[in-house]
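Field log, afternoon session.

UNIT: design team B
ACTIVITY: writing a sequence onto a fixed backbone
BACKBONE:
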């Protein structure tokens, strides 16, 4: 067998193993935790409300600040409520799970809160009404050290400003 053919065969086998390992891990998390969708928490036990029927938090994937479809739906509800209550200002709190350094998680929490802020602004909420703060990993909603706890802690929470 020539070297090029061996390399191609090796790469195919390696990629197959990698893909199957990733799929197995995602299925395992879904099966064990029962409330995971990929690595984004979708349960309701930590959902609080900014107002009647308006969830106050959105969740993120590991090391991500990209809004999910569900997060965008929640933020659209927040924007509609904020448009009706133009006298209320909010603070967007960015959070991360326990993994990573303090500095990394503070920066990640800030990116998450800013992603939510930017989305609210696209729905007509003035930047002057929105403050951003990052708590990084300092204020976990679940102090566990497992995938379910981590997924609950990767969030941005909208609270009324004082």
């Amino acid at each position: 067998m020539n070297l090029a053919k061996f390399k191609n065969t090796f790469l195919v086998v390696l990629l197959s193993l990698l893909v199957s390992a990733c799929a197995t891990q995602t299925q395992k998390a879904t099966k064990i935790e029962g409330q995971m969708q990929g690595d984004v928490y979708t349960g309701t036990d930590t959902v609080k409300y900014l107002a009647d029927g308006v969830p106050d938090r959105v969740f993120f994937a590991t090391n991500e600040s990209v809004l999910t479809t569900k997060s965008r739906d929640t933020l659209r509800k927040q924007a509609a409520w904020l448009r009706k209550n133009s006298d209320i200002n909010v603070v967007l709190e960015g959070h991360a799970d326990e993994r990573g350094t303090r500095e990394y998680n503070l920066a990640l929490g800030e990116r998450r809160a800013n992603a939510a802020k930017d989305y609210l602004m696209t729905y007509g909420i003035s930047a002057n009404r929105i403050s951003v703060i990052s708590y990084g990993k300092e204020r976990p909603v679940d102090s566990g050290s497992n995938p379910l706890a981590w997924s609950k802690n990767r969030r941005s929470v909208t609270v009324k400003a004082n």
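LOG NOTE: Residues 18-36 have pLDDT under 50 and may be disordered.
NEXT ACTIVITY: expression trials, pending approval
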